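Problem 12. The chain below contains 209 residues. Write out its predicted structure in token notation.
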Amino acid sequence: MNRLKQLRNSRGITQDELGRMLGVQKAAICKYENGRVNMPNSVIMRLVEIFQVSADYLLGTDEVVPLLKSSSAKLSSSSMPHTPAIGVPLVGFVHAGLPMLADENITEYIPVSANEVSSGECFFMQVEGDCMTGDHIVEGSLVLVRKCVEADNNCIGVVRIGDEVLLRHIQRFGKQLALTPSNPAYNTMIVSEGDVQIIGKVIETRLRF
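Solution.
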């Protein structure tokens, strides 16, 4: 079991306060603490900064108690190491199942470490459908996408076919693309490269609560 709750309580930080520091809701903190949801790497790195402990200690794999600065004092957001954050737009839905229309209206901005999006234009889309569950991308997840016109072979990408937007593994075979789900209940789609537009490559997945 991880030590997130222990560390949070030792600093006198509430779940609401920690959620604001991480840019997530209180429910996410609760699920991280009870182990129902694994913490993304970006969250682990931020918590290591906040609590000044190693990732191994935070995750409960290291029994050595670290020496902490002002361990009895409550931390404030102004006194903690801070990685600049920027707001990345959530622009609609991407379907991980049957194709559906993507509504590309910005609905909100989600805080992300500036280091994560330092190269290239990025945006979030929310997943609908279950065809990418083999990659732990479930319905309701947010995918952080870096815009590109070419994608690495077998990367997880967002593509447009007509007015429809899909989330799939992308593989190129000559002038054709194979768009492959990771849920075996769905079939691979083979399309001509002229019929598909690569929108971007998925660089991070987040659960939304």
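Discussion. The first strand starts at residue 85 and ends at 95. Students who got a different answer should revisit the alignment rule from Section 12.3.
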